Amino acid sequence: MAQRNRTDEHPTDLDVTAFEKILAILPLETYVAGETILKAGLKTGRLLILKSGAVVVLKDCVEIARVEEPGAVFGELSVLLKQPHAADVRTLQDSQVYVADAALLEKDPAALLYVARILAQRLVFADSGLVELKKQLQAGQPPSALGKAIEKLQEVLKVGWDVGPWIA
After folding, report:
1. Is 39 within a domain?
2. Where residue 126 falls among pLDDT bands split at 50, 70, 90?
3. Which pick of 58, 91, 105, 168 has the fewest CB atoms within 10 Å?
C-alpha cells in the first residue's frame, strides 16, 4: 500500500489560519466515554470536528475506524449529501467536539475546502488500498496477508487526516 506523505496530508498555513478562526466561534460540546455522538439513520445536519478525545466509527456494528486526531471531521457526508448519517460515532474516552450545522459549508469557503481536502485525501488512499488488496487477491495471498491489507485500508479511511496539534 502507498505510504502516506505527511507533508501532503496537512492543510496549508492559509487553510489552518482560516479554519482556526472558524473553530474559535463554533460551540464546543463535551461527551463522556461511551456516548454516541452521531447515530446512523438520523439526519441531524450536524458537522462535528474533534477537538480532543477519541471516538470509534461503527457501520452496521462493524468498527471501521478509531480516531483521536484533533481536526477529524464527522457527519460531513450526511451534511453534503443531505442524507441520514451512515454510521454511528461513539466516544472511546471523554471527548470534546466543535459543532457546526450544514450551513457552515454553504457559507464559508474555508470550511468547505477543509472538508473537501479531507474527503479527497481519503478517496486517494482508499483507491490505493483497494488496488493493493486486489493485487493480493489475484496473487492468491493467504487470509492473514489480506487481513493486514484490510487493516491498512481501514487506517486510511479514518474520518480525518492527521492534522496535527494545531487545533487547540
Report:
1. yes
2. confident
3. 168
